[in-house]
């Protein structure tokens, strides 16, 4: 598992902030946190659901202020991922939280892209950036975000949509995704995590996204499963996240294998590894144990991670 080459397609850079680093960044930026030690912080990681998790996650975002913070965060993740056999990481990142704190977009994206360039050389891992809008905000905010990141267009592979799902359907962001497509971005959308299967349909039909982040709720709807298989829509599933946020309470019933058996290209990812108790390999291990996956099935998951990535075919030469 450790050395099996794989891609990670669903990880939020902000969700890779380890408690020790949160404390360190807070101290170096002269900021107070409600927790006095990494252990006290870890004790706050008993989440009741997505919105409760997001309140802790956005508190963590408060400590990231400088170009060096974004650089160091990205470097730490890419090094850890490379050590787990990750050869390509498509990393979601939501600038809006940091803009709220007055952090210039150039400091955010400059720090991240410097770290991507360095890790390509030092660790042989390809990092790619997916800018993610917050769905609890307005579509006008998301369109403004597209304007703001336009100078960085050649360093951004695609766009996504995250944050509080219920009550914020993909259709609220139809124009955002249309505008992103018009600018040549690849597209992905969180759907069917806490929200219903209809949100997965909306993401495909109204927003025309290429990939679905999570897609858990789709598993209960046979005709949607058939469609995902027929259209070969990649789902970026995150088992430990779904467990910790009570999307599922038992990984032995996790629909990943059923979806795979039905022909849906599913992948395994970490989402917010520092908050959910595992990076990508711990997620592979958890589903392998719970579902009794064979070695061939694990290899299929790893293969799906490359074929479902937004890499150009020539970038995959040597890994497929
Ligand atoms: N942002 C970070 N983690 C998320 C998740 N699990 N769902 C939606 N938005 C997120
Ligand atoms: Zn996510």
Automatic annotation (TrEMBL):
Positions marked as site (Important for catalytic activity): 214
GO terms, biological process: adenine catabolic process; hypoxanthine salvage; nucleotide metabolic process
EC class of the enzyme, as a word: hydrolase
Stretches that traverse the bilayer: none
Reactions catalysed according to its record: adenine + H2O + H(+) = hypoxanthine + NH4(+)
Keyword tags: Hydrolase, Metal-binding, Nucleotide metabolism, Zinc
Cofactors (names): Zn(2+)
Top-level taxon of origin: Bacteria
Positions bound to substrate: 272
UniProt entry tagged with the keyword Hydrolase: yes
GO CC, alphabetical: cytosol
Active site location: 193 (proton donor)
Binding site for Zn(2+): 10, 12, 190, 271
Domain Adenosine deaminase: 5-320
UniProt xrefs under InterPro entries: A_deaminase_dom, ADE, Ado/ade_deaminase, Metal_Hydrolase
Molecular function GO terms recorded: adenine deaminase activity; zinc ion binding
NCBIfam families reported for this sequence: aden_deam, PRK09358.1-6
Family the entry assigns: Belongs to the metallo-dependent hydrolases superfamily. Adenosine and AMP deaminases family. Adenine deaminase type 2 subfamily.
Function noted in UniProt: Catalyzes the hydrolytic deamination of adenine to hypoxanthine. Plays an important role in the purine salvage pathway and in nitrogen catabolism.
UniProt-recorded name of the protein: Adenine deaminase
Name of the gene: add
